Amino acid sequence: MAINLVKGQTIDLRKGERGETYDLSQVTIGLGWDVRKKNGIGGGFLSKLLGGEEEEEYDLDAIAFLLDGNGKVANLGRTADINGRSIGLYEGDIIYFNSMRHPTGQIWLTGDNRTGAGEGDDEQIIVRLDSLDQRYQKIVFLVAIYHGRQQHQHFGMVENAFIRAVDHQGHEIAKFNLSGDATYNGMCSMIFAEVYRKDGTWKFRAIGEPHQTDSFVDLLKAGYTY
After folding, report:
1. What is the number of helices (H) and of strands (E) in the chain?
2. How many separate domains does the chain show?
3. Residue 6: is it exposed, middle or buried by C-beta count within 10 angstroms (0-12/13-18/19+)?
4. Is the dihedral angle over the CA atoms 96, 211, 37, 164 positive or is it negative?
5. CA 64 from centre of chain
6. Residue 71's domain spans which residues?
7. Which of 27, 156, 217, 222 suits 209 as a labelling partner, its CA being 20 to 30 A distant?
């Protein structure tokens, strides 16, 4: 049975509360969210029919930092010219929409959902924890609103946000729900959770730490680089 976590809670990903064991050979970290409806009358067709405002699209991006034993991103990748665009942090220890697969092939982002539409996970990062190189001791998962500050979008307008971990057999291990409230107003990024090695297994810690910046690079520079 999946554990519903509270902020700051840490669990063992491999073993459940009832002694069940989970297959960490491949774990899906799913992140989801909804944008709060305007005027409380619902979005889409119903909203238009009743004269309400059309639901605004939010582009939230899931990101992962792979950290070494010092809690830092050791490889910032390179700058690549792709389809005429200069892409930074490419093929380094950061998984994001412009560098979706780690060079080792052990962790990857499945896609870039640019609207948040649909049920279930909006974005997924899959990681093969059991075969991840020992030089990676921790993975931090965060979400940033693309151009959030420019478009005056923030986590105060996001609800039903969650992060969950699902093992290779499809068993949901844990889920952490964040309720959008006034404390998230003006906050354009969020550190959701981290997964780290401990005593030969992997731990999952729910964090829910908001930040004003809409750039994960700012968070990277603030504490995760040498």
Report:
1. 2, 14
2. 1
3. exposed
4. positive
5. 7
6. 3-224
7. 27
The pTM (predicted TM-score) of the whole model is 0.89
Give the span between the Cα atoms of 101 and 94, in whole angstroms.
9
Both tokens of 138, joined, read 């921790």
44 three-class SS: helix
Query: Looking at residue 195, which CATH number applies to its domain?
Result: 2.60.60.30
Contact criterion met (CB below 8 Å) for 122 and 32: yes
Task: Name the residue with tokens 């939010």.
Answer: 58
Between CA 62 and CA 67, with CA 63 as vertex, the angle to 5 degrees is 150
Query: Identity (one letter) of the amino acid at 199?
Result: D
Q: Tell me the chain's radius of gyration from C-alpha atoms.
A: 18
Higher pLDDT, 205 or 2: 205
Residues whose CB is less than 8 angstroms from the CB of residue 84 and which lie 6 or more positions away in sequence, other chains included: none
Q: Is 70 exposed, middle or buried (CB count within 10 Å of its CB: 0-12, 13-18, 19+)? A: exposed
> If you count them, how many residues does the chain have?
226
**The two three-digit tokens of residue 123, written as one number:** 């974005």
User: Does residue 62 contact residue 100 with C-beta atoms inside 8 Å?
Assistant: no
145-189: per-residue pLDDT in tens? 999 999 999 999 888 889 999 999 999 999 999 876 788 999 999
Tokens 């960490």 sit on residue: 24
